[in-house]
Amino acid sequence: MAKLNIYNQKAEKTGDIEVSDKVFGVKMSEALIHQAVVAQMANERQVIAHTKGRAEVRGGGKKPWKQKGTGRARAGSSRSPIWIGGGVTFGPTKERNFSKKINKKMKQKALLMAISDRVKNGEIIVLDNLNTKEFKTKVMDTILKNIEKNILEIKNKKIEPRKEEKIEKKTKTKKEEKIKKYKRSFLVVNDKKDEKVKFSIRNLAGIKILNLNNINIVDLLKYKNLVLTQEAVKNLEEKYK
């Protein structure tokens, strides 16, 4: 059993919660996570490109000329692929199917692996609640700023500059480097659908909000930090334990 700290909206610690290793301590398997990500992205893929074959293009019902006696090659329809304006041979069509199958238990385990990895790396933040009285982007921005200042800075969440950038940035102070390199990246998971929270947070850059029913592997890997409400943690345990 692991313990996660619980914070209020001012990012002040108010307590802790014990979580099950069956949900928040699953051993990592990169192959399984890769399989789950590929399957989800393939199943979301839309078939847009479509070319018309000779049966779909307009016209061509009448034989252009008689079969013999003209000295020209035989032709049965002006919609033949070798004619200008005719159908396309072997072109992409809307009948293509990119979907991939993955077992339900494999998909669930990959999801729990991604969540467990956030716990292991200290990239999960549990809030006691995410309620707001009005539709205000500024309120949500303040909550996230509190998290960045009081929690992430303590944990020294900073991205190291790449090797080629180190030479160019020698003259700058460490503080300036840190400010420039930091990029906000939060996936916020609420325990229920809340329109006020949704509309208050959707215009903030680098942040996505989901309710617990829509949590998925791709979004978990896309965003650096995972923010969960206390109720969402309990519901996750009840659902997957």
Question: Secondary-structure blueprint of this entry?
Answer:
Elements: E1 2-7, E2 13-19, H1 21-24, H2 30-44, H3 104-120, E3 124-127, H4 137-152, H5 163-168, H6 174-181, E4 186-190, H7 195-201, E5 207-211, H8 217-222, E6 225-229, H9 230-240
Parallel strand pairs: 1-3, 3-6, 4-5, 4-6
Antiparallel strand pairs: 1-2
Helix pairs in contact: 4-7
Jot down its keywords.
241 residues, alpha/beta, Ribosomal Protein L4, Chain: A, 2 domains, 6-stranded mixed β-sheet, 9 helices, 6 strands
Structural commentary:
This protein is of the alpha/beta class. Helix content is 37%, strand content 13%. The protein has nine helices and six strands, in the order ββαααβαααβαβαβα. It has helices at residues 21-24, 30-44, 104-120, 137-152, 163-168, 174-181, 195-201, 217-222, 230-240; strands spanning 2-7, 13-19, 124-127, 186-190, 207-211, 225-229. The protein has a six-stranded mixed β-sheet with strand order 2-1-3-6-4-5, with helices on both faces. The chain is elongated, with a radius of gyration of 28 Å.
Structure at a glance:
By secondary structure, the chain is α/β, with parallel strands linked by helices. The protein has nine helices and six strands, in the order ββαααβαααβαβαβα.
CATH A-level architecture of the largest domain: 3-Layer(aba) Sandwich
Helix content range? 25-40%
Supply the CATH superfamily name of the largest domain.
Ribosomal protein L4/L1
Number of helices: 9
Low-confidence stretches at least 5 residues in length (pLDDT < 50)? 157-167
Kindly estimate the percentage of residues that lie in beta strands according to DSSP. 5-15%
- Average pLDDT, rounded to a whole number, is 87
Distance from first to last alpha carbon: 13 Å
Structural class: alpha/beta
Which topology of the largest domain does CATH recognise? Answer: Ribosomal Protein L4, Chain: A
The global form is: elongated
Number of domains: 2
Strand tally? 6
Strand order, sheet with most strands:
2-1-3-6-4-5
Largest sheet: 6 strands, mixed
